Amino acid sequence: MTELRVNGERLWATIMETAKMGATARGGICRLTLTDADRQVRDWFVRECQAAGSNVTVDEMGSIFARRPGRDNSRPPITIGSHLDTQPTGGKFDGVYGVLSGLEILRTLDDADYTTNAPLEVVSWTNEEGSRFTPPMLASGVFAGAFERDFAYALEDCDGRKFGEELRHIGYRGRVKCGDHKLGAYFELHIEQGPVLEAENQAIGVVTGVQSQSWYEITVTGRESHAGSTPMPLRQDAMVVCARIVEATHEVALNHAPLAVSTVGLVEVRPNSRNVIPGSVFFTVDLRHPEDAVLRRMEEEFRAAVDWAAGDMGLKVTVVNNWSSPSVKFDEACLGAVRTAAGDLGYRHRDIVSGAGHDAVCISWVAPAAMIFIPCEHGISHSEEEKTEPEHITAGANVLLVAVMAHDNTLRDRA
Ligand code: HGY
Ligand code: MN
Ligand code: MN
Questions:
Q1: Mean pLDDT, to the nearest integer, of 85-91?
Q2: Ligand 1 contact, 136 CB (< 6 A)
């Protein structure tokens, strides 16, 4: 095992520095993809990677690649990555921890004047969150061939702004073709965003895979009318049908407890006035389960609930399954490197399946990939309360460093 270790204080300070970019009054971060705050952190990241001696390129989806040459640059790079964009009330660690740990490893190797066998690459993928532009994991999806670039460019946010134009506007519509190069392996370090590691007092999660998920967009069409003078039997109240579907969607997850989850996170009521019966309600549903077959059953139950709710009130309901992502299992050799690194470093660790989606899902379709988790306080994430400790940050980055260097040697010896 290498004797090299990251500089945990420098890594923590770097994370806190980026936390100022898009900082919210309540201690979180709002750095929605392709906004000025996103541009600010991107510009900062490019400068820091160049200062660490790497060559930076930007592809046509705006993903940023910082490459550090190895001894044999004919080999595909070992890539470390995650994302810099956040949820509207995001935290300081989701995504950015994985990208900055990659930067810390570039710095650590630079300090030690150590050269890997294969080139080392750090990547920040555009639009992992899927909050402003849906679907999520968009740039890593284009890189893996799941989406066409022009499909992504045509996506619009809630104000009708197009992805491709916004990318050009912030100056990150690169010329390099997305997916233009093979990866020798991909490692992503992330906070767990769930309660398991903390509850079991584990320092490291060896992420063996990611659960499957399906997203839906539902529009209920009723009739706007006066809240005071319209008798109940004459109403076509879109909000009542929405409420029934929300309750039924919650029940679908409870029916498949304890692993199923369902969420209605976005609701747009029209005209959204307190004394007008809602004529239309648009809302989203997010269904997830570790097993694809169970998720299929959940989806059937969800659609039956929609039919019941609509029929009962005689209102029109449209349902669009706008995105689905199957469960994935990560690469055994990469996982072995992570497990061995955690064990050799003396960290308590356990295998875990990720409840959250990550860019590693898409990248696992085109390269051997694995993820590493560290605990976060009470498992809270996608929240301004997101929190973890410096010792967890350092432990995760050291496991990443040791695993990547060991895997680099394994790939060299295999050649
Ligand atoms: O929604 C997800 O699972 C990811 O955090 N974007
Ligand atoms: Mn994330
Ligand atoms: Mn996230």
A1: 98
A2: yes
> Residue 415: pLDDT above 80?
no
pLDDT the model gives residue 255:
98
Q: Residue ranges of the domains in the chain?
A: 8-211+327-414, 212-325
Assess contact for 57 and 122: CB atoms under 8 A: no
Strand partners, 354: 210
Q: What is the CATH number of domain 8-211+327-414?
A: 3.40.630.10
Q: Tell whether ligand 1 has an atom less than 6 A from the beta carbon of residue 357.
A: yes
From the CB of 98, is ligand 1 less than 6 Å away?
Answer: no
Q: Which fold is adopted by the domain 212-325?
A: Alpha-Beta Plaits (3.30.70)
For the CA of 357, the nearest ligand = 1
Query: pLDDT digits over 61-71, tens only?
Result: 999 999 999 99
Please tell me the pTM assigned to this model: 0.97
Count of positions (residues) in the chain: 415
Q: Which residues have C-beta within 8 Å of that of residue 248, sequence separation ≥ 6?
A: 302, 305, 306, 308, 309
